[in-house]
Sequence to fold (315 residues):
Amino acid sequence: MVRVNPTTALAVPLGIALGLGLWTLLALVPRVGAPRLSMRVAPYLRDLSAEARDAVDRRPSEPASVLAGLVAPGAAHAGRVFAAVLGGSDGIARRLRQAGAAADVESFRSRQLLSTVAGAGAGVVVAGVLAGAAAASGLVLAGVIVLGAAVGLIAPEQLLARAARSRQARIATELPTVLEFLTLSLSAGESILDALRRVARTGTGELAREFGRVVADVNAGMALPAALVRCGSAVALPALTRTIDQLVGALERGTPLAEVLRAQAQDSREDAKRLLLEAAGRKEVAMLVPLVFLILPVTIAFAVFPGILVLQLGL
Fold:
């Protein structure tokens, strides 16, 4: 029987970590030479040949893939259980769509679960520090751990809601300009689908990406009014929804689209001005804070200090 001293007990995990690290570095080294012809043809034959399917689905032998393959089923099951406990998947899906995120609800719940575990771990670390520095009660230490887990649970949803509101604000800012561009394209003789395609191709903003999805839906076989309505309901921006309703109504009734879009662009600019004035009104009290607590005391100090100094010198 071999006696295990502290040095040997420390050397074993360090050796395992060193081996995994060297294995990872070796897997990152690029291979010399072109891939074989069978590997290049296999993706095109995976529906016809079992050997090609096995060659394509073969996982690399580097440790990250091995560990991910071992952990992925359990993590996916934990994410589904976590999503079932929390609920509200429809709201999460809507905010993910509004934020323009490519992740689905399950992946978001998985990240939220990891964030909760990380928050609980941070709470354990803080509780350990408090327990070593002061004689804190067990209730306080448990409260610190629960607080860390709660912060990790709530933070992803708050960040997602903030990202959705920020993207909606950017779309509202881009809406008048995009509508005017569509008006110019329609006035030049293009159809509404060609105008949307031009905006999606030349634009770089969030609204241009949304119109790109509309064009992709139309190319996939969906009717243009249905694709526009789907876009408006997904973004859930009142100005955009109102514009799409007017545009769909004009398409159904045969109304000139250029005049409709020009009127909507003007209304969007007026709404932007109104929202700016409302924001300024809400910020009026906040703008008084630096005036009252910073500028006014400094002004009084400059006015009173010379008199106090003269009185002290005179006395």
In short: The chain has a mean pLDDT of 79. Residues 161 and 236 are 13 Å apart (CA to CA). The two ends are 92 Å apart (CA to CA).
